[in-house]
Amino acid sequence: MVPNFRHLIRQRLLNHADADDVTDQYPWVIRSNFKQKVDHFNPLNTDTWDQRYYYNPKYARNTSIIFLMIGGEGPENGKWAGNDKYQYLQWAKEFGAHVFDLEHRFFGDSWPIKNMNFDSLSLLTTEQALADLAYFITSMNQKYGFNNPRWVTFGGSYPGSLSAWFRSKYPEWTVGAVASSAPLNLKLDFFEYAQVVQDDLALTNKDCPGYVQQAFQEMKNLSTT
């Protein structure tokens, strides 16, 4: 039952990703894929997979300034690359930058391995995601012939963390990073995130946080009896 359930979850995620694609609203945005490494840290593993990205050349006035929006824990759909109401796209206009939006591994249409087994999900790590960014930048430099490229990464929340960590771990690949609302100091008891989730639940239904708390208490009671 468990493998079938995982397959169902993955299929629903893929269907959701395709249904939400909004590139028809931004005809200048190009949806594409490139060959990404499955495992950046195992030299014996030479497998690759198709990682989805969106490219917006609309504002580009040169071949050296490139903005990269980092995808997070959900599918990308082209909006972050095409909706010029976003502040970073206003900056792209100002500086004449190329714009990319890269989907995170194991989300949307970007699956290194086509299942959700525990062995497969061992490849879902921050280290792999950061290495994905480095390999993506290298690949795009080659594909589009960027001359003396100056990349700047962007992200909010978890992708914001990736943006800052990437600048720290791979400083040679970027000239700057924007990390909005980004938690950087990892800790086991990250109660602040739970508070944000609770606030979001309350916006949907003021009684919802209480029901969730009650459900967790019930699970705790069942696990100790």
Automatic annotation (TrEMBL):
Belongs to the peptidase S28 family. GO terms for molecular function: dipeptidyl-peptidase activity; serine-type exopeptidase activity. This is Serine carboxypeptidase S28. Keywords: Glycoprotein, Hydrolase, Protease, Signal. SUPFAM superfamilies: alpha/beta-Hydrolases. GO terms for biological process: proteolysis. Gene3D superfamilies: alpha/beta hydrolase, Serine carboxypeptidase S28, SKS domain. The lineage of its organism: Eukaryota, Metazoa, Ecdysozoa, Nematoda, Chromadorea. The keyword Signal applies. Coiled coil: none annotated. It comes from Cylicostephanus goldi.
